[in-house]
Amino acid sequence: MDSILLAIAAGAVGLVVAGLLAMRILRQPQGNDTVREIGELIQEGSAAFIRKEYSILAGFVVVIFAVLAIFIDYNILDNATIDRLNDGGAMSSDGPWTAIAYLFGAIGSALAGFIGMSIAVRGNTRTATAAQTGLNKALQVAFSTGGVMGLTVVGIGIIGVSVLWIVFENPNVIAGFGFGASSIALFARVGGGIYTKAADVGADLVGKVEAGLDEDDPRNPAVIADNVGDNVGDVAGMGADLFESYVGSIIATISLAFFAVTATGVTPIPYDVDSDRAILPLIIAGIGIISSVIGMQLVRTGDNADMGKLLWTLRYGIFGAGALSLIGTGLYINSSDTLEFDLFWVVVVGLVVGQVIGTSTEWFTSYEGLKIGKFEFNPVRWIASQSETGHPSTIIAGISVGLYSTVIPALAIVVGIYLANELAGLYGVGLAAVGMLSTLGITLATDAYGPVADNAGGIAEQAHLAPEVRQRTDALDALGNTTAATGKGFAIGSAVLTALALLVAYAFVTGVTELDLLNPKVLMGTIIGGLLPFLFSGLTMQAVGTAAGAMIEEVRRQFREIPGLREGAPGVKPDAARAVAISTQGSLKAMIVPGLIAIVAPIAIGAIMGAEALGGLLAGSIVSGFLLAIFMANAGGAWDNAKKYVELGNFGGKGSDTHAAAVTGDTVGDPFKDTSGPAINILLKLMAIVSLIFGPLFV
Fold first, then answer.
1. pLDDT for res 373
2. How far is the C-alpha of 145 from the C-alpha of 24, rounded, in Å?
3. What is the DSSP code string of 635-672?
């Protein structure tokens, strides 16, 4: 139990440092009156969206809380199933406790996203102002803003899981915490993603392509909505997303600490709440928090840094945190009398696989690419060059890059699963996911800083700051596209390992010891599982298209009906509030059905077709969802940076036909990388954890 208290202390340190970073950011100058006015509009729009979204989600949380409290009563099961659950550490009737844990998980997920968004909408004006001083100063403010999000997520996550473990001492109850985190994360990611991409697509297609305006031109009515979207989707939604990934990996590994996987299936082992294997994921996460805090101090750059130097600036911090985390983990495991040192190598496997996926993502989404001697591999520049021959060529190039970019992550995951299983069984697979996310505090900081830099660039454009200010924020924004794609790669990779670990836990609670594809029910379940990520992505992409269509018509209407707006007449301003309202209404309506799929589908398949079919569904969703998510995230990131590469003056630069084609690629890629792709990893884990909680009822 003392070790768990150390994990809680590490979480508290993370929250304290997040508070100190927030105070440092708020002390930075906000800029001139125009900058502050634009910042206030973004704050108001973001707050209005979050209030409406959370009010809808509150009703959903109440319903699920009641369902868990009333229906998750394992006393209705046969005696053999109850004995198996009790041997694995479950209470015979734990519905009310699971419901309480669910509530805390939902609150934690919402709180993490809200805190991150609240500091982001204040950090963007300060980043724009800092960029007037120099690139390094702007990087420090933007990165510190992302650091608040990263440390808040890991701090709340580890404290929440640890306290619930101390209170309930039950792996099935803490699964409820993961359920709450996942359900809120899915709605937040989908709702925020639809909002931000509807505004972004509308702003780009009408503003850039039709009206010939610069990005973030203050005459464009959708610009403020686009800036709001960066905060509610790419910050609040992403924070809830990574919170769910973080706690999900810890919960899955704690659950696996009480199962032994043998050739004959999954069986319980003697239950001990103080088992070192059960506590180890919390210790690794705690060590990772302290390592992340130290690694953040390594992020520094010069004012004349190019893309390559900026990437290495962040890598120093990430690699430094990873090395410190491994040293701390190795010392802890070596000091234990009951833990095999092979578990250290499992954590190494997780971190290495995460870095391989992250580095691969950088190659495919950065216009720096990969250079080894005379060999140069640069998909982004190739997509930009293809834009010279028109819009179809851009789309074909981006799709092809996204498709073959799945190879390295898939092989890395396969090797990682093999090594982790060889070293520590399927418990090792879960532990590898914990290792992969152990330094989430800093990796999420590098991810969350991107939207802040993007917003800072928009504010600089709208406030008519000096051209070099926009150049600096654009450099940070381009880096942010790559680091965001890298963060998505980490989240998707960990999702596969976590979902697999949850599938093993599901096998135990249901007694489904094997999935035989020659069994028609299992085969049908597998096909349905493979289908669900495609259905989910189709619905979210359709929602973006519908909401973007409404935004495009509104921007056209304002250009047509407001005299002098398009020409930039003095004193004439767009109706930004109307554009914000359109994105808000469209996204909140559209998030309901995709979000419900993850909860309703596994319960329906389990109730109608049985536990074996549901196991097949989980297996099928993991395979198709992983590859589809990597494809969409990388294709979207590559299209986005290909557009930015053209805007730097290459292949004709801004205003050329090549630029128009590149913008089209970016508008297609935006919902790929910021709406559908990143939400798939939540879909996988949410379906798995719903199956774990409700699974015994389908036996």
1. 61
2. 10
3. HHHHHHHHHHHHHTTGGG-TTSHHHHHHHHHHHHHHHI
Place of tokens 């610069």: 214
Beta strands in 523-586 (DSSP E): none
d(CA 199, CA 296): 32
Terminal Cα distance for the chain, rounded: 35
Residue showing tokens 């152990």: 438
Cα separation, 282 vs 300, whole angstroms: 30
Q: Which residues pair with 267 in a beta bridge?
A: 260
172 or 164, which is more confident:
164
In the DSSP assignment, the letter for residue 601 is H
Helix (H, G, I), strand (E, B) or coil at 218: coil
Candidate from 66-75, 249-258, 407-416, 620-629 with smallest mean pLDDT: 66-75
**Quick check: 635 and 669 in contact, CB under 8 A?**
yes
* CA atoms lying within 13 Å on the CB side of residue 334: 7
- Predicted pLDDT of residue 285: 94
Instruction: Give the length of the chain.
Output: 699
The SS3 call for residue 124 is helix
Q: At residue 68, what is the residue type? A: L
Instruction: Compute CA distances 496 → 163, 434, 633, whole Å.
Output: 26, 12, 15
**82 CB neighbour count, 10 Å cutoff:** 18
Do 615 and 506 meet the contact criterion of CB atoms below 8 Å apart? Answer: yes
Paired sense of beta strands 265-268 and 370-372, if any: unpaired
Examine the pLDDT at 52 and tell me if it is beyond 70.
Answer: yes
Locate 319 and state its tokens.
């690699």
Distance (Å, whole) CA 435 – CA 422? 16
Interaxial angle between packed helices 379-386 and 611-647, expressed in degrees from 0 to 180 and rounded to the nearest 10: 70
The Cα 132–Cα 135 span in angstroms is 8
Closest CA relative to residue 680, chosen from 475, 399, 457, 491: 491
Tokens of 535: 């259905």
Token pair belonging to 419: 């090594």
Which residues lie below 8 Å from residue 268, measured CB to CB, with a gap of 6+?
A: 84, 87, 88, 89, 258, 259, 260, 508
Q: Model confidence over 622-639: pLDDT tens digits? A: 999 999 999 998 999 899
**Window from 92-101, 275-284, 569-578, 673-682 with minimum mean pLDDT:** 92-101
Q: Where are the alpha helices (DSSP H) in 366-406?
A: 379-386, 391-404
Rounded Cα–Cα distance for residues 88 and 102 (Å): 20
Answer for the pair 302, 309: CB distance below 8 angstroms, yes or no.
yes
What gap in Å lies between CA 134 and CA 461, rounded to an integer? 17
Determine which of 148-162, 187-201, 241-255 has the lowest per-residue pLDDT on average.
Answer: 187-201
- Per-residue CA distances from 54 to 61, 195, 263, 537 (Å): 10, 14, 46, 23
What letter would DSSP give residue 673?
I
Residue with tokens 């407001």, as numbered in its chain: 562
- Given a contact cutoff of 8 angstroms between Cβ atoms, the answer to whether 288 and 438 are in contact is yes
Phi, psi of 174 (to 5 degrees): -70, -15
What is the predicted pLDDT for the residue at 12? Answer: 95
Q: What's the token pair of residue 533?
A: 């990520």
| Strand partners of residue 265 | 262
- pTM, two decimals, is 0.85
pLDDT tens sequence across 466-480? 888 888 887 777 777
In tens, the pLDDT along 417-432 reads 999 989 988 888 889 9
Contact in structure between 482 and 362 (CB atoms under 8 Å): yes
- Closest to 691 measured CA to CA, from 461, 423, 512: 512
Q: pLDDT digit string (tens) for 568-621? A: 777 777 777 787 788 787 777 778 888 888 889 999 999 999 989 999 999 999
Tally the C-alpha atoms within 13 A of residue 71's C-alpha that lie toward its C-beta: 13
Taking each helix axis from N to C end, the angle separating 171-202 and 135-168, rounded to the nearest 10 degrees, works out to 150
